[in-house]
Specification:
Elements: H1 2-25, H2 33-56, H3 63-72, H4 76-81, H5 86-104, H6 109-133, E1 139-140, H7 145-150, H8 156-159, H9 162-175, H10 179-196, E2 198-199, H11 215-235, H12 237-260, H13 272-287, H14 295-302, E3 336-337, H15 358-362, E4 366-367
Antiparallel strand pairs: 1-2, 3-4
Helix pairs in contact: 1-2, 1-3, 2-3, 2-5, 3-11, 5-6, 6-10, 9-10, 9-11, 10-11, 11-12, 12-13
């Protein structure tokens, strides 16, 4: 049994460490090699701890797959090799905090939810300490929860749709009466509210690094969802086959719509990227960007005439509205600000002030 567990851990470490190290060794990473190498080792160790915790939670059959998806299916790998500052290392602290909390979570639902809220505050504090340590200076603002979660401008679920599945898994686990899932949802809700109350509502250059310390909580829900998928495939394989068939039918219908609207040539060749782009545009026009569901529906329902097809997640540009249409916020409600060094939090610490820095080149401001 021990050798089997050792092989499982070795497989995980090879999967999460070797590809980033190869990426670093070939000179593809813009980050300092020493910082990126240390970040890769720290994140790999944290994922190994996470995988063992998932086994303890009774999710051993999908623990390795979940840990791998937590790295490559989110923005963690970017912050590991492209922006290896303190934000990537918060995963280590978050993993240890969640492990300590899960061992002491109460069997009473109310107590579990209360302790989860406290955990969310601690995780938020951990991410803010790391953020300030990189030179960023977030400021308080009016909560923009839907924007911070679904906006195309660094919205959490828009940039990492896998986390939407993870939250659904946590809801399913909580519905079954598991107190750890109820506490995890409380912690994530608290963290989301804190992040949405800051300007900018994200950290880092890709997605929102403020949620990196909470990846172990998302992993619990993701493992639950994968476990459910695995059991469904074993017991009812025709359901998965029907789902795959529905995807192919939808693709065919979108192709017909393109042909009918003459978006593709009727008697000539057409490239696959063109067909895929047209299909994505048609889907967004009909039902909105899938990565922004259900926020774009909520916005469209509350504002007659606002199409839910906006790929900006919340709103579409229209007179009297601020920014690029990604916020759904009246003009003048928020103002444009800069951090003290003139850079937004999306600038890596090793490029600030240099000609290669995006903020230096464009004088970019953060609309908050």
């Amino acid at each position: 049994m021990t050798s089997r567990l050792d092989r499982r851990t070795a497989t995980l470490l090879a999967a999460v460490a070797l590809p980033p190290l190869a990426f670093l060794a070939t000179g593809q990473s813009p980050a300092p090699p020493l910082a990126a190498g240390a970040s890769i080792l720290a994140v790999s160790a944290a994922l190994a701890i996470l995988e063992r915790d998932l086994r303890t939670a009774g999710l051993a059959s999908v623990s390795v797959a979940t840990a791998i998806l937590a790295l490559y299916g989110t923005g963690l790998v970017w912050h590991e090799v492209a922006e290896p500052d303190l934000t990537a290392l918060t995963l280590v602290g978050g993993t240890l905090l969640v492990r300590a909390w899960s061992h002491r979570v109460s069997r009473e639902r109310a107590a579990a939810i209360a302790s989860g809220a406290v955990l969310g505050m601690v995780l938020a504090g951990l991410s803010l300490v790391a953020e300030v340590g990189t030179g960023a200076h977030p400021a308080l603002g009016r909560p923009a929860l839907l924007d911070s979660l679904f906006s195309s401008r660094h919205g959490l679920f828009f940039w990492a749709p896998l986390l939407t599945i993870a939250v659904c898994g946590l809801v399913l686990r909580a519905w079954r009466g598991r107190r750890d899932a109820a506490g995890a949802l409380s912690a994530l809700g608290t963290l989301a509210l804190v992040s949405a109350s800051l300007r900018p509502w994200w950290s880092g250059g890709l997605g929102n690094a403020r949620f990196l310390p909470a990846l172990p909580l998302f992993a619990l829900g993701l493992a639950t969802a994968l476990g459910r998928l695995r059991s469904t495939a074993e017991r009812r394989p025709l359901q998965l086959a029907a789902l795959a068939g529905a995807v192919l039918v939808a693709w065919n219908l979108l192709l017909m719509a393109q042909y009918r609207a003459e978006l593709i040539p009727r008697d000539d060749t057409v490239s696959f990227p063109a067909v895929a782009e047209n299909s994505a545009r048609l889907l967004a026009e009909i039902a909105g960007a899938p990565t922004a569901w259900p926020a774009n529906w909520i916005f469209a329902a509350g504002r007659p005439g606002a199409p839910r097809a906006s790929t900006s997640a919340i709103a579409t540009p229209r007179p009297g509205w601020a920014g690029d249409g990604a916020y759904g916020t009246p003009a003048g409600t928020w103002s444009a600000v800069r951090s003290r060094d003139g850079h937004g939090s999306s600038c890596p610490w090793w490029t600030r002030g240099r000609p290669t820095c995006a903020c230096t080149r464009r004088g970019r401001e953060l609309f908050v």
